[in-house]
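>> received
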Amino acid sequence: MAEKSNHLFVDAGDLADPEVVAAIATLRREGVKTASGLPLTVITVGPGTEKPATTRVLVVPKEHMSKSHIWQALDAVVQRNPGVILRDDREVPTGSVEAAVERGFDKSEIEQHLMPWIKAARDNASQLVAEKEKELEAAKAELAASFAPQVDAKTPIWIEGGPDATGQG
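>> returned
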């Protein structure tokens, strides 16, 4: 499963390309943030250090992705980052579960959009549990009432150690 990230990496070779340098400047100038609200950071790795090759997902708000100059800047830097999946925050899983996993969607997003019957089953089960809990509480109250003494205004109540019927303790 791919982890969500707010980092992109470049090395000295990437920084020798004026297009990449301009792209980084655009991303910084525009204050591009990820969907989680964290600023997008472009990190320069030192000589001899490899860029991370792990699969990461960069989720950027649609507002940024719909601006062509930001999209082009993101694309220029993402192309230099192997294993980075770029998508906007409004993208939803479509097609197969396998394709959704490849696009970096988590289990809950996949179930919500590709397997809605799971949510329906959970909702139905929750509703049934709530109904049964109400029935159980009503049954408990009924059972407790059946053991309570039945007293009316005409039934005398004798309290041990209290006054007797003559009023004399």
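>> The mean pLDDT is 85.
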